[in-house]
Specification:
Layout: H1 2-17, E1 25-40, E2 49-57, E3 61-71, E4 74-83, E5 101-102, E6 105-106, H2 109-114, E7 129-135, E8 138-146, H3 148-157, H4 169-172, H5 185-205, H6 212-228, H7 233-248, H8 251-259, H9 264-282, H10 288-304, E9 312-320, E10 327-335, E11 364-374, E12 377-387, E13 396-411, E14 414-427, E15 436-450, E16 453-462, E17 466-467, E18 470-471, E19 477-489, E20 492-503, E21 534-545
Antiparallel strand pairs: 1-2, 1-3, 1-21, 3-4, 4-7, 5-6, 7-8, 8-9, 9-10, 10-11, 11-12, 12-13, 13-14, 14-15, 15-16, 16-19, 17-18, 19-20, 20-21
Organism: Chitinimonas viridis
Membrane topology: Multi-pass membrane protein
Protein name: Porin
Length: about 550
C-alpha cells in the first residue's frame, strides 16, 4: 500500500511539473513464473535443497522517465526505477536480511546486504535511477546505475530474456561475492576451531608444552569436520571427549606432557571440562567465543573466496559517446562514501595482525567499454576495475575484469554469440597472498521457429579458479539452459525454461538472483547454494511489459 501511494504521489507530481516538458512515462514489466527448483548433490549431503514449487519473480520493475528539450542540441532526461516483487512484495533478497543460519548463529549478516544491490530490504529507486544530458556529443548521466560491463552482453546477445534464472550470468559471476569459489566448508571449520582451541588447550594444560599445538590442531580438525557435517553440539562434544582421551593416551603425547611436568590424566580431565564450557559458549549466539569463531570463519572465507566486479553501483558518473559507424565508447567511474574507514578489521591469521595490513579504505571503480553493432554484427571489449572493494573489508587491494564478446545474425531468424571473461583479485600486499584468477566463457544462440515462437539455448563454463597462484581443483561449473518464448502481442509473451548449474565439488555457483531457495524460505539470494550442489529449475510463466 505504501508503495502504491508513493507511486501515485510521484506520478501526480511529475504530471504537474511536466506541463512545460514532455510527458512523464510510467513503464515497467511484470514477470512471474511457476517454478520447480532444487539444489542437490552438495559436497556435504546434509546441505542439499530438496525440490520445491514456488512462484518466482523475474526482475519485475516499475519506472518513471521523462525528458525536456532545452535547445536543438541539448536534452535533459531522468529515470527513476524500482524493483517490485509481486510474488511476495519484497525486494529480490526476500523479506529477510539475515545471513545464513547455522548451529553457531547468524554467520555473516553483511553478505545478506552487500553481496548484491538486489538483496536486503527493498528501497524505492533501487534500480537504475539517474539524471543526465544528451546531444550530438553523446550523453552524460549520474546516479545509481548498472555497469555496462555486466549488462551489455546479456542484453545484446539475449542471454537475459524472461527471467533472471535463465541467464549465463550464473557462472560469469556477476553479482556474486566470495562464496562462488572458496574454501572448502570443512577446511574453514577446521581452521576456525583449531585457532579457537589453542588458548583453551594452553589454559587447560596449565603450561606451554611441545604438544599443545598438536592437541589443539587435532581436536580442532575433528570438531570442525563434525560441525561441517551438521552434527549437533552434543554429538560434537561427545566426539571431542573421545578425541581427548585418545590423544592424551597416545604414548608420544603422554610422554611429552610428562617430560614437561604435566600429568596426562589430570590434563585430560581439565581439557574435557574446558571443552564443555567452550562448547556452551561457542554455540551461544552473541557470546564472546561465538563472535570470535564467526569472525574467524568469515575471515577464512574472504581469504579463500572470490570477488566479482560488475553489478549495480551507487555514485556513478557515466559517459556514452555518439555512435561512429556502429562504434560506441562508454566510460564510467563510481565511488563509495566510506573514506577513512579502516579495512581488515578482523584477524585472518597471524599475518593479518601486523599494522601494515590495516589501512584506510579508498573504494572507487572505473570501466571502459568499446561496443560495436552494425549490419547484424555485434562485438565488444569491456574492462572494469574496483579499488578496495568495500565488501572485502580491505583484504583486496583491487579486483578487475575483462570481457570480450562477438555475435551475429546468420539470418533474420537466427543469431549466435560467444563471450569470454577473465576476473582477477589482487590481495592486500601485507597479507602475502598471490592473485586469484577465474576465466569463463559462454556460447548462446536463438532461432525463431515461427514469427511468434523463439527458442534460446545457452551453454557456459566457469573454469577452475586460480587461488593465490595455485589452481583450485574442482572449483569450476557448467551451465545449460533452454528457453522457449511464445509471443502473444508486442508487450506480452509466455515462456518456458529449463536450466541447470552443474557445480564441481568446491564450487557454489547459483542462478543469478532468483536462486535456489535456501531452507529459510524468506531468502532467495544468489549466495545460498551449498558447495557442490547443482541448482536445477523448470519454470513456465508470463512476461508483460507496460
Amino acid at each position: 500500500m505504501q508503495r502504491s501511494l508513493l507511486a501515485l504521489a510521484l506520478a501526480s507530481a511529475f504530471a504537474a511539473s511536466a506541463q512545460a516538458a514532455e510527458p512523464v512515462t510510467v513503464y515497467g514489466k511484470m514477470t512471474l513464473g511457476v517454478e520447480s527448483i532444487a539444489a542437490t548433490g552438495a559436497t556435504l549431503a546434509n546441505q542439499n535443497i530438496e525440490r520445491r514449487m514456488r512462484v518466482t519473480d523475474g526482475a519485475s520493475t516499475l519506472g518513471f522517465r521523462g525528458s525536456e528539450e532545452i535547445n536543438d542540441d541539448l536534452t535533459a532526461y531522468f529515470q527513476i526505477e524500482t524493483q517490485i516483487k509481486p510474488d511476495d512484495g519484497c525486494g529480490f533478497g526476500g523479506c529477510s536480511t539475515v545471513g545464513k543460519i547455522t548451529a553457531l548463529g547468524p554467520q555473516d549478516n553483511r553478505y545478506a546486504a552487500i553481496t548484491s544491490p538486489h538483496t536486503g530490504t527493498s528501497r524505492f529507486a533501487n534500480r537504475p535511477s539517474f539524471v543526465g544530458l544528451r546531444g550530438s556529443w553523446g550523453q552524460i548521466q549520474m546516479g545509481r546505475m548498472d555497469m555496462y560491463y555486466e549488462k551489455h552482453v546479456p542484453n545484446e546477445l539475449h542471454l537475459l530474456r524472461t527471467g533472471l534464472n535463465t541467464t549465463a550470468l550464473a557462472v560469469l559471476g556477476s553479482n556474486q561475492l566470495s562464496l562462488a569459489v572458496g574454501a572448502n566448508d570443512t577446511v574453514v571449520a577446521q581452521r576456525t576451531f583449531s585457532t579457537t582451541l589453542a588458548p583453551i588447550v594452553d589454559a587447560a594444560i596449565g603450561k606451554s608444552t611441545p604438544v599443545n599445538a598438536t592437541i589443539a590442531a587435532t581436536l580442532g580438525n575433528g570438531i570442525g569436520a563434525a560441525y561441517a557435517q551438521g552434527l549437533t553440539p552434543a554429538q560434537i562434544l561427545a566426539q571431542a571427549g573421545g578425541g581427548v582421551q585418545a590423544l592424551l593416551s597416545n604414548p608420544q603425547i603422554a610422554s611429552a606432557l610428562i617430560a614437561s611436568g604435566v600429568n596426562p590424566v589430570q590434563a585430560g580431565a581439565s581439557l574435557q571440562a574446558a571443552l564443555g564450557t567452550a562448547a556452551t559458549q561457542v554455540f551461544t549466539p552473541g557470546s564472546a567465543l561465538n563472535t570470535q569463531v564467526l569472525n574467524q570463519a568469515r575471515a577464512y572465507t574472504v581469504q579463500n573466496g572470490f570477488y566479482f566486479v560488475g553489478h549495480r553501483y551507487n555514485n556513478v558518473v557515466q559517459y556514452r559517446s555518439p555512435a561512429m559507424n556502429g562504434l560506441t565508447v562508454l566510460g564510467a567511474v563510481h565511488t563509495r562514501e566510506n573514506k577513512d574507514e579502516l579495512g581488515v578489521e578482523y584477524a585472518l591469521d597471524k599475518t593479518l595482525t601486523n599494522s601494515a595490513a590495516q589501512r584506510k579504505l579508498n573504494s572507487w571503480g572505473a570501466e571502459l567499454t568499446f561496443h560495436y553493432m552494425n549490419k547484424g554484427v555485434f562485438a565488444s571489449l569491456s574492462m572494469m576495475r574496483d579499488n578496495d572493494p568495500y565488501s572485502m573489508g580491505g583484504a583486496l587491494d583491487s579486483a578487475y575484469g575483462i570481457k570480450a564478446a562477438y555475435g551475429m545474425y546468420f539470418s533474420p531468424e537466427t543469431r549466435a554469440g560467444l563471450v569470454f571473461e577473465r576476473q582477477v583479485n589482487k590481495y592486500n600486499g601485507a597479507l602475502g597472498y598471490g592473485d586469484n584468477v577465474r576465466d569463463a566463457w559462454v556460447l548462446s544462440g536463438s532461432h525463431k521457429v515461427t514469427p511468434k515462437i523463439e527458442l534460446i539455448a545457452t551453454y557456459a563454463q566457469a573454469l577452475d579458479a586460480e587461488m593465490h597462484g595455485a589452481k583450485q581443483a574442482n572449483s569450476g561449473a557448467r551451465y545449460a539452459q533452454l528457453t522457449g518464448i511464445v509471443t502473444l502481442s508486442p508487450r506480452t509473451n509466455l515462456f518456458a525454461t529449463a536450466a541447470k548449474v552443474a557445480n564441481e565439488s568446491e564450487a557454489a555457483y547459483n542462478f543469478y538472483v532468483s536462486g535456489a531457495a535456501h531452507p529459510n524460505g524468506d531468502i532467495q539470494s544468489a549466495q545460498y547454494t551449498s558447495r557442490g550442489a547443482d541448482p536445477t529449475s523448470f519454470q513456465v510463466g508470463i512476461n508483460h511489459n507496460f
